[in-house]
Design goal:
By secondary structure, this protein is of the alpha/beta class. It contains ten helices and 17 strands. 34% of the residues lie in helices and 24% in strands. The strands form three sheets. It has a nine-stranded mixed sheet with strand order 16-15-14-13-7-12-11-8-17. A six-stranded parallel sheet has the order 3-2-1-4-5-6, with helices on both faces. α1 packs across α9, α5 packs antiparallel against α10 and α7 crosses α10. The longest helix is centred in the C-terminal third of the chain and has 20 residues. Bound molecules: nicotinamide-adenine-dinucleotide (NAD). Nicotinamide-adenine-dinucleotide binds next to α1.
Length: 379
């Protein structure tokens, strides 16, 4: 990991080596070559469920050692940053143990399974004074930074509306089996991907104050495991639509949908203002659409990502060559390692992720009651 051996080492302990574990490992491995960091990440130890899986993954992903006991990883004196990519229900015990050991904690979203659990983690981290960060990697896209700049500069005028969506199709088929995502504590589509569009909405327009939501389970039962003929009921949402009112007074709507046939990664938004609009979809993550025009040639124009949009240039000097999903994780890890080395604060930290979780829960409560619900902690 890294190319600069004279820099002090920062030991990485990675828990989990699935989809996100591989993505974290790639980011820690490459970040030192792309960003000028004050320290050098070193892949110390990887934990997974069995010795065999942990050993195989550690070898493949470049970690020195492996274990099937994540507590040993947390307690390991060579580990400075604990990266948690295990299923959601394990985030709380793993993070609390890492906080107790004084480690920087990098946890995947959603922070936990309930807001109460996320609050416990947040308060423990703040009391211990450790650096935390949560994997809302889509915020790291230079095009999202540009959208935020356009909104806050007033270029599209006073903001008048928000329409957001996170739609994918990975749960469309009734043959996709149950997993931690469909367990009650998994939180369904709203917690799994709704958390991303909520974090995006907050990043761009500030806190969501009130919400009124409607949830549906499209696939009523699923195989208990891959290929099984035994099916069990699905007790979480596949699709939620929510009306939202921001603290600023702006009104809008958002959708979380993991059974959206044809959609692979439509984490998207359209934000309108009195003088223009911005629109984005992660399916075209190197483009931002901006409307500011009046007159005969008015229309949305396409802004293409390039080195004029930091930190694109860290990866590539040429426009049109494009960043990818894994690069967003590298940018996130650069900011994590920098916060760890400087004793600064990570963003989004546990407190930010707690409010995202509280917003998810307010939507779940509204979907049950049919009433508008105020997000706790927001006026
Ligand atoms: N930020 C993103 O864009 C993004 C994308 C996908 C998933 N996620 C989040 O990442 C987390 C993991 O999701 P995933 O898709 O990588 O899941 P996954 O099933 O692919 O990987 C989970 C890993 O955790 C391991 N694991 C399970 N129990 C363990 C234990 N007791 N000790 C050690 N390891 C254990 C599994 O063996 C597996 O390697 C979830 O919280 C999910 O919400 C985030």
């Amino acid at each position: 990991m890294g190319i600069e051996t004279s820099k002090p080492a920062v030991g990485i302990g990675l828990i989990g080596s699935g989809f996100m574990g591989k993505c974290h490992a790639n980011a820690f491995r490459s970040v030192g070559g792309l960003f000028d960091l004050p320290v050098r990440p070193v892949a110390e130890i990887l934990a997974d469920m069995t010795d065999e899986v942990a050993q195989r993954s550690a070898a493949a992903l470049g970690f020195k050692r492996s274990t099937s006991d994540w507590q040993k990883l947390v307690d390991d004196p060579a580990v400075d940053i604990v990266a948690i990519t295990a299923p959601n229900v394990l985030h709380e015990p793993m993070a609390l143990a890492a906080i107790a050991a004084g480690k920087t904690v990098y946890c995947e979203k959603p922070l936990s399974t309930t807001a109460a659990s996320a609050r416990k983690m947040t308060e423990a981290a703040e009391a211990a004074g450790v650096v935390t960060m949560v994997g809302f990697n889509f915020l790291r896209n230079p095009m999202i930074g540009l959208a935020r700049e356009i909104i806050t500069s007033g270029e599209i005028g006073e903001i008048t509306g928000f329409r957001g969506r996170h739609a994918e199709n990975y749960m469309s088929s009734p043959d996709v089996p149950h997993s931690f995502r469909t367990a009650i504590e998994g939180g369904g589509a709203l917690a799994d991907i709704g958390s991303h569009i909520i974090s995006m909405a907050r990043y761009l327009l500030g806190p969501i104050a009130d919400t009124c939501a409607d949830s549906h389970t499209i696939v009523r039962d699923r195989p208990v495991s891959a290929g099984s003929s035994h099916r069990a009921p699905v007790e979480v949402d596949d699709m939620t639509h929510a009306l939202v009112r921001f603290d600023s007074g702006v009104a809008g709507s958002l959708e979380a949908n993991w059974a959206a046939s044809g959609r692979t990664m439509d984490l998207s938004f359209e934000i309108t203002g009195t003088k223009g609009a911005v629109a984005f979809s992660q399916e075209f993550m190197n483009e931002l659409r901006l409307y500011t025009g009046v007159g005969a040639r008015a229309g949305f124009k396409r802004i293409e990502a390039g080195s004029q949009h930091p930190p694109y240039g860290q990866f590539c000097p040429a426009p049109g060559h494009h960043l990818g999903f894994n690069d967003l994780k590298v940018i996130e890890v650069a900011q994590l390692v920098d916060a760890h080395a400087s004793g600064g604060t990570g963003f989004p930290d546990f407190r930010e992720a707690l409010v995202v979780q509280e917003t998810v829960e307010a939507m779940q409560e509204s979907a049950r009651s049919g009433a508008w619900v105020t997000v706790p902690g927001v006026s």
